[in-house]
Amino acid sequence: MSSENPMRVAVVGATGFQGGAVARLLTERRHLVRTLTRRPSADRPPLPGASFVAGDLGRPGDVRQLFEGTTHAFMTMPLVYESERVEAYARNVAEAALEAGTERLVFNANTRIPLGPTDVAAFETRRLAERVLRDSGVPLVVIRPPVYLDNLFSPWNGPALVDDGVLAYPLPPSARTAWLSHRGLAEAALAALTREDLEGRTFDIGGERSLTGGELAAAFGRGLGRAVRYEELDPAAFERSLAELLGPETAAGVAGIYHFMASGADPLLMADDDGVSTEVLALEPPPVEEWVARQPWQVWASDTPLS
């Protein structure tokens, strides 16, 4: 299998940030992309070269239609943390992939997952989805990202970074984290789709090395050309802010990861994997400061005129 040979890829989640990054990279490399969406055409994000199938991940017939005629698949689970719905989504994808003769399915677990069971829905629903997909017999590769740098290019972080040099995030300063960009996720997904002899493998993808909060702030300082300090954001405050945007149930699901990290139960959960994934997937993640330097941070400056 080669990344140069065109694939026909069913991308589940391409209208979101993570799946969208994967879909864009695939189309850039001249692979054919199809995705499932409930959004009307006017509300769909721009995905040049991709085609849309109207439907719902919870309806088996819609998912079969998405997979019809495709050779490969990539799946990012929506921000859903109810076990029954997640299991149904995973089962629908597995059955559609088997029926279509999918050569390989790459599942993005959205997060790292602790070795043992927890009471965190964000972990356990993804563990459940992995099990359903694996038990189905579909040729599967799982990638588990840490935390996305793109989370920091946001209305919550941008103004404080640009105006005050403050980088606030709900991770303990001591939590070593292999920060990854959405583009880095896409590159890992493409490698997982195309490199030989990966079926059955699980990769804790991430940046080249782990960074503490202070080291992350220093990298941002180099990228921005100014002093930056790290401040730990209270996960409960983060959850309340997120609830205003996503609703309380989704916010609780997302924030569960940060409550877990704040507990110190597994301080290395988001750390790098000693270079295993970068070597096997032949990835070369750039330093964090390079990613920072490429972002248009001035859009968050308080003196930026409103359009």
UniProtKB/TrEMBL annotation:
Pfam families: NmrA (PF05368)
Family listed: Belongs to the NmrA-type oxidoreductase family.
Organism: Streptomyces flavochromogenes
Keywords on record: NADP
The name this protein goes by in its record: SDR family oxidoreductase
Gene3D superfamilies (alphabetical): NAD(P)-binding Rossmann-like Domain
Keyword Oxidoreductase: no
Keyword Nucleotidyltransferase in record: no
Upper taxonomic lineage: Bacteria, Bacillati, Actinomycetota, Actinomycetes, Kitasatosporales
Domain NmrA-like positions: 8-240
Taxonomic superkingdom: Bacteria
InterPro entries (UniProt xref): NAD(P)-bd_dom_sf (IPR036291), NmrA-like (IPR008030), NmrA-like_oxidored (IPR051164)
